[in-house]
């Protein structure tokens, strides 16, 4: 796995560990997709946040660590990069959103 892929996997895991209950409900179906894209840490973190600690334990054991699922999740959650909010803001679909992009200086 490349460095950028591993970094994305790690940061996505951190985000999943910060979701609240309502946000978790909206991403409940993602573990299979995360597995498909080989985002094993993100998948384990999401499953842990959803109450399934087995995946986090298996991941720790596969990497040769004897740390508990709770300790691993806490360590991940505490490694928030500067500028990240304490809780992620997910689009809930309640309000219209306009996305714009500049391509070669045009709007």
Provide a count of the helices: 6
Gross morphology is globular
**Average pLDDT rating:** 78
Q: What is the helical fraction, as a range of percent?
A: 40-55%
Model regions low in confidence, pLDDT < 50 over at least 5 residues: none
Beta fraction: under 5%
Distance between the termini: 36 Å
How many beta strands in the DSSP annotation? 0
Count structural domains. Answer: 1
Q: State the order of secondary-structure elements, H for helix, E for strand.
A: HHHHHH
Using only C-alpha atoms, the radius of gyration works out to 16 Å
| SSE-based structural type | mainly alpha
Largest sheet: none
Structure commentary:
The protein is mainly alpha-helical and 107 residues long. It is built from 6 helices and no strands. α1 packs across α6 and α5 crosses α6. The protein is globular and about 50 Å long.
Please outline the helices and strands.
Elements: H1 3-17, H2 21-26, H3 31-36, H4 40-49, H5 54-62, H6 69-78
Helix pairs in contact: 1-4, 1-6, 4-5, 5-6
Task: Summarize the entry for a quick read.
The protein has one domain (3-78).
Looking at this protein, list some descriptive labels:
single chain; 0% strand; 107 residues; mainly alpha
